[in-house]
Amino acid sequence: MGITTRPRRTTPIRVLIAKPGLDGHDRGAKVVARALRDAGMEVIYTGLRQSPEEIVRAALEEDVDLIGLSILSGAHMALFPRVLALLKRQRAASVPVFAGGIIPDEDAKRLKRAGIRAIFGPGTSLGEIVSTAEKLARSRA
Amino acid sequence: MTRPGPLPSAARAIVKGDRRALARAITAIENGDPAADPVLRALYPRTRGVPVVGIAGPLGVGKSSLINALVAKLRTERRTVAVVAVDPSSPFSGGSVLGDRIRFERSADDTGVFFRSMASRGAAGGLAAATLEATRLLDAAGFDVVLVETVGSGQVDVAIREVATTRVVVVVPHLGDEVQTLKAGLFEIADVFCVNKVDLPGADLARRDLDDLVALGSWPGGWTPVVVGTSTAPPSGLDDLWAAVEAHERHLDASGGRAADERRRLSGEIVGLVRDRVGRDLIDRLERDPELRRLLDRVVARSLDPRAAADRLLAGSRRSR
User: Which chain A residues have any C-beta within 8 angstroms of a chain B C-beta?
Assistant: First the structure.
């Protein structure tokens, strides 16, 4: 009877992988989700076309250690800062946010200054994404 | 002793509707963090026994979509709803992809809904070890209805019986012939059978097989399962589904079944907690306690058999009390 057995003490990293904006391309998000799963994380995938409000709400309900945003539509300069602002408003600015997709270098610099902790462009190895995600999640605790 | 008194701050926040405190307490339960203990203890007397509706069934039958549709329906009736959706953890990495939220379409400012994804973390039976206590927090937090979605069930995934007051078993057309419905396990625990994707060919046959199953069997507790057909795109049959759930909830009250079920579940929970603690304690001692290590050595050397060793351990633990 598994159900009455109290959970053993474990603290897997919980991470939200979210697709803000209107593009319908989530292959990258799925590949990253799977790599994080294989690294032992619990990955909550939101699906496509999530508003910043929905993303932040999901992050709080799911009590995640980390948020990953994937975007290919070009709307990152509008949507990412909005996610950060909403997190701040909910007093959850300590939840690190990383991002991936098609993000020009200059935008990436500005987004990092705004508080996005890591940005992964095309060609980044999954190993690098996983190790950065682990570092970011553990840095919070 | 549990008695209502001043609440610890996390418990107070949960009762006041602080969703973040609720989310954190669920994490603490999942992680086996002792911080969950005082919260659970304080909130147990505040649970009201709200309907906990289990949605079980094989993978891909549309459980998440049904839950989304049910939440939409309950919200138009101004009832508040919490959802716990369980997905499997990898037996290899321990990780998981929790994807039940994908089907969930609620406006971000609707505070009458709470959705939590949960990884099974190795528990058998289609739920996580933390699911039961999480539903208890959601009850104490004031939600009118709690919906629990199981892992895509295999035939023996019946843990939902220990958590839900009403169990809905969801199937789709062409899952198998009528003999499948006679097999032991999942089909025995349904209070409501739901044939989803009822617009697909073969739905009539699936419904007939379930009608036959219901008509043939004798069902415990004086409740005969109801068979309903649903679809979520476009939505149909959801009123029937919910009416069947409510009819079962009313039956539980009228027949005394609610109290009997609860007593059975709580007894199982207490036994499980004791077994778990004793077992874990014993595993530690078998490695550390020299006397117990010698006992284990003898079993390894075949001079004592495992059952005799267990007898001695039990006799020893009785003496020491």
Answer: 1-12, 14, 33-34, 36-47, 51, 53-54, 56-58, 60-63, 90, 92
